[in-house]
Design brief:
The chain is an all-alpha fold and 239 residues long. It contains 8 helices and 2 strands. The protein has a two-stranded antiparallel ribbon. Strand 1 and strand 2 form a beta hairpin. Helix 3 runs antiparallel to helix 4, helix 3 packs across helix 6 and helix 4 crosses helix 8. It is globular and about 45 Å long.
Length: 239
């Protein structure tokens, strides 16, 4: 039976751009989900549901464009997914060494970005500047959101939702991250993430996946590492 996944995608508009939450009934969360706005350990969460990934890809038109895990050597060049072709940062932009001071860990993933994803990435970068975590913090934030939601501002995902996790970072109201309206506001969600990150002593010296995992407490602690290179490219161009 042919299933029309696009019918699962009613958008909930809450302002012209900053508070648009993507709600997918019957679709699971895409990554290990954040639990509480502290650096303390919390119960392990469930991981990505492959049916959810496929449904989101189909519903958003990314099914053919996304890069499968076994084709990581063929990065997608679309939107803000690639860095400077010369390897030198544009004038006034952070260098590769600043953005990825510890080097990348493992195979890297890349996805094309639409206008909604770019707007959400911009909100994360702006929040990084306002909270003082700098360009390196911005890379951690963007990479975390790429893993958790593919940079989509997800509303409640229905039957497959991991508890009450929502938004760019899949934060949970029941664990103290804020109300559903707050955590589906990209500026609020990113600020909450960076506030928690700043509570981690020496986070600047941690590998990206360790810093992200300490905040998010995911069942897939190493999954964040795969987005470091694309996150750095995004931050370099948006900074």
């Amino acid at each position: 039976m042919k299933v029309d996944f696009t019918r699962w995608l009613p958008a909930i508009a809450k302002d012209s751009y900053r508070k648009t939450a993507l709600s997918v009934a019957g679709v699971a969360a895409l990554g290990g989900l954040a639990l509480a706005p502290t650096a303390a350990a919390a119960p392990v969460t469930s991981g990505p549901h492959q049916g959810a990934v496929a449904a989101i890809d189909l519903a958003t038109g990314k099914a053919k464009a996304a890069t499968p895990a076994h084709h990581q050597d063929q990065p997608v060049e679309s939107g803000l997914t690639t860095g400077s072709p010369t390897g030198k940062p544009p004038a006034g932009k952070p260098s590769r060494e600043q953005l990825i001071p510890h080097g990348i860990e493992g195979a890297q993933s890349r996805i094309p970005l639409d206008d909604a994803q770019l707007a959400n990435a911009r909100a994360i970068v702006d929040a990084a500047k306002k909270t003082g975590v700098g360009d390196r913090g911005a890379v951690i934030g963007v990479a975390t959101s790429l893993q958790e939601s593919k940079l989509y501002n997800l509303g409640h995902l229905g039957a497959y939702n991991d508890h009450d996790s929502q938004g760019l970072f899949q934060q949970r109201p029941s664990s103290g991250w804020g109300t559903p309206d707050q955590i589906t506001d990209p500026e609020y969600a990113a600020t909450a993430f960076f506030t928690a990150l700043k509570n981690i002593g020496g986070w600047q010296d941690l590998p990206l996946t360790a810093a992200a995992q300490t905040v998010q407490v995911s069942a897939f602690p190493y999954a964040y590492a795969q987005w470091e290179e694309q996150a750095a490219d995004i931050v370099q161009q948006m900074w």
